Inverse folding.
C-alpha cells in the first residue's frame, strides 16, 4: 500500500493516517451534505450568524458527520472541544469533565462537550448535565442514532435543540469519492458501473465509503474493475438495522403502512429489509396477523386464517423456506380489501362501556333461575327470536337508561359489503317491529 501512496506523492505520515482523518473538513463550509442544518436558512447557520449557539442533540445514522460538525462548531465559536463516549464513560469520568470545564470557565474559556452515543447514559447520568448546562459551564452537543424522544430525558431535551442529520445521498457520496481521489492523487480503478456500486455499498454512510475507498486504493491500478468484479472483492456494508431501536420501528411501520396502502411490492421490500437485518420471523408473523385483524378485518375474514396458516407453516419448516409462507401472507394482505370498521367499532364500544359501566342489562334479557328473581321481573317479556317472524324479535338489548348506539359501520368493500346489507336488513326489521308495538 505504501508504494501506491508514494506513487501518488503522499508522505509516509499521510500513508499511515486513515483516509477519513485526512479528509476531515477544516471548516463547516467543507462539510458534505446536511445543508438542511448548516445552510444559511438552517438552524445551525442561523445560530452562528446570530452569534448564539445553544446546546444541541444531533440525531442521525452513523457516518453522516455528527462528530465532525461538533468539532467544527467548537472551532468556530472558540470553545474548547471535549469529546467523551457514553459507552466508555461513567460518573467518575463525568465528574472530571465537569471540574475541568469549571476551571476553564474561571479563566474565561468555554467548553463544548461532545457526548457520543448520549442515549446510552441512564437517567441519573443525563440529569448530571443539567446544572452545568444551565450555568454555562458546558455547551452540550450530544449525538445519537436513536430517537431522542424515547431515549433522552425530557429535562435534557427541553434545554437542547434536536437537529436531524440525514444519510448522504448518492450525489453527496460521489463528492466524497472525488475528494478522496484528489487526496490520493489518482482515480480509482473503477468503471462507471463499479463506481455506482461502490456508492451503493456505503448505504449513505460517509465513513464506510472512505473505508471502502481505502481498500480499493490498495489494489493494483493496472486493471479497471466493473461492478461484478468489485462485488467479489468488497462486501456490502451491513444494513443499518437495530432490532430493538429506531430501525426496527421505522421498518415495521413502513411494512404495515405499505400493506394498509395495498402496495404488495413495497410491502415485500420492507418485509425483506427486516429479514436481511436479522429480524425474528416470528415477530413478523405476529405483526402480519395484527394487520389482518386491524386493517382488513371483516372485509376479508379469510385474511386472519392465511396469516395463522403461514405462521404455522414457518414453525414447521423453519428458515429459510418458512419465510416464503410469510411472504405469501404479505402479498395476500396487501391485495385484500381493507376495512377498519370492526376496529373502530370495538374502540367506540369500549369507550361506551367505560362511560356506562354501572348500567344493568334490561330485565327482559336476564335469566330468572329463582322465584325471587322472577318476582323481580327478570326474564319477563322476553321474546325468543327463533319463534319470531323472520327469526328476529327486534327487542332492545341495551340498558334501559342508555340510548341505542351504532358502533359498527361496515365499508363497501369485500365481504363487509354483504355484512352492511345484513345490517341494513335488520335495521329495517327493527324499525318495523317498533312501529307494530
Amino acid at each position: 500500500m505504501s508504494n501506491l501512496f508514494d506513487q501518488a506523492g503522499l508522505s509516509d505520515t499521510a500513508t499511515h493516517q486513515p483516509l477519513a482523518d485526512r479528509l476531515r473538513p477544516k471548516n463547516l463550509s467543507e462539510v458534505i451534505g446536511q445543508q438542511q442544518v448548516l445552510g444559511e436558512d438552517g438552524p445551525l447557520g442561523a445560530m452562528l450568524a446570530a452569534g448564539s449557539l445553544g446546546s444541541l442533540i444531533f440525531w442521525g445514522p452513523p457516518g453522516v458527520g455528527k462528530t465532525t460538525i461538533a468539532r467544527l462548531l467548537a472551532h468556530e465559536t472558540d470553545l474548547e472541544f471535549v469529546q467523551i463516549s457514553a459507552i466508555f464513560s461513567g460518573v467518575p469520568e463525568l465528574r472530571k469533565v465537569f471540574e475541568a470545564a469549571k476551571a476553564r470557565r474561571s479563566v474565561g474559556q468555554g467548553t463544548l462537550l461532545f457526548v457520543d452515543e448520549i442515549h446510552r447514559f441512564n437517567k441519573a447520568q443525563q440529569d448530571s448535565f443539567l446544572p452545568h448546562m444551565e450555568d454555562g459551564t458546558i455547551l452540550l452537543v450530544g449525538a445519537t442514532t436513536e430517537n431522542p424522544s424515547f431515549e433522552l430525558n425530557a429535562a435534557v431535551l427541553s434545554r437542547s435543540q434536536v437537529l436531524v442529520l440525514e444519510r448522504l445521498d448518492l450525489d453527496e457520496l460521489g463528492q466524497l469519492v472525488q475528494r478522496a481521489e484528489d487526496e490520493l492523487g489518482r482515480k480509482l480503478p473503477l468503471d462507471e458501473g463499479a463506481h455506482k456500486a461502490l456508492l451503493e455499498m456505503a448505504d449513505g454512510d460517509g465513513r464506510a465509503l472512505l473505508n471502502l475507498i481505502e481498500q480499493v486504493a490498495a489494489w493494483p491500478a493496472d486493471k479497471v474493475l466493473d461492478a461484478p468484479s468489485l462485488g467479489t472483492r468488497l462486501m456490502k456494508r451491513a444494513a443499518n438495522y437495530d432490532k430493538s431501536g429506531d430501525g426496527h420501528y421505522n421498518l415495521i411501520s413502513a411494512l404495515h403502512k405499505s400493506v394498509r396502502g395495498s402496495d404488495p411490492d413495497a410491502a415485500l421490500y420492507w418485509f425483506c429489509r427486516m429479514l436481511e437485518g436479522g429480524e425474528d420471523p416470528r415477530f413478523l408473523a405476529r405483526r402480519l396477523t395484527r394487520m389482518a385483524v386491524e386493517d382488513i378485518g371483516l372485509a376479508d375474514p379469510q385474511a386472519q386464517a392465511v396469516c395463522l396458516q403461514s405462521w404455522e407453516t414457518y414453525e414447521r419448516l423453519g428458515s429459510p423456506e418458512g419465510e416464503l409462507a410469510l411472504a405469501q401472507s404479505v402479498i395476500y394482505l396487501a391485495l385484500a380489501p381493507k376495512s377498519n370498521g370492526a376496529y373502530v367499532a370495538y374502540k367506540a364500544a369500549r369507550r361506551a362501556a367505560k362511560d356506562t359501566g354501572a348500567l344493568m342489562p334490561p330485565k327482559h334479557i336476564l335469566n330468572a333461575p329463582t322465584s325471587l328473581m322472577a318476582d323481580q321481573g327478570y326474564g319477563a317479556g322476553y321474546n325468543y327470536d327463533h319463534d319470531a317472524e323472520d327469526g328476529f324479535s327486534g327487542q332492545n338489548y341495551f340498558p334501559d337508561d342508555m340510548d341505542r348506539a351504532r358502533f359498527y359501520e361496515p365499508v363497501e368493500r369485500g365481504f363487509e359489503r354483504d355484512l352492511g346489507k345484513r345490517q341494513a336488513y335488520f335495521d329495517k326489521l327493527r324499525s318495523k317491529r317498533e312501529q307494530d308495538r
Observations:
- The beta strands are 56-59, 80-85, 111-116, 139-144, 161-164.
- The longest helix spans residues 415-436.
- The two ends are 98 Å apart (CA to CA).
